[in-house]
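Title: Prediction job returns without error message
Component: structure pipeline
Severity: low
Priority: P3
Assignee: unassigned

Description:
Job completed but the reporter wants confirmation the result is attached to the right record. Sequence as submitted:
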Amino acid sequence: MTSARRSDAYATVLLSLAALCTSWAGYQATVWSGEQAQHSAEAAALRAKSSRASVTAGQLVLLDVGLFNWWLRERVSGDTSLAQFVEARFRPEFRAAFESWLATNPLRSPAAAPSPFALPVYHLESRDSAVIYEKAADSASTIARKANRTSDGYVLAAVMLATVMFFSTSAQQATHRLRWALIIIATLSFLTGAIRLLTLPRA
């Protein structure tokens, strides 16, 4: 086999391998791009839930504060029946803190907490949910960023392999000396792209 035929055969094999690897890289880039989009959408939905839960928590705090101030005003003024009426409408989450606060004799003891809201027992489930949703959103965003980097890595590998096809095709049309130079460049590009493909995560 002549040198020209050998170089043509080698260039053809290299071209076929590059085309196969490019197709694989394109497939993986598409899959990881979809993964990134999915987790980005999930993160956005979770952040929306976190915002709604946070708004709900703020509204409930305002409700608790308003009822407590009303109760305190009636209690100090001596209207016991109205104070009991207000107390009966406390929310369960606030009632637990309120009863713990009352047990410290706050109206007479200077060491007592200034209000039920200062006690650790006062916490809102909606506020806890907001924190949980926010952490889940952060986790989904992290996964989306990793998927995006992986997709970009496959795109770069595909670009490297595309240069292999360019140099391999050009080598088949070039003079003898230039032909082998182009084949060497194509081989190096192929090895670089192939190694990159092997090191990237696979879907």
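Comment from assignee: result matches the submitted record. The longest helix spans residues 3-77.
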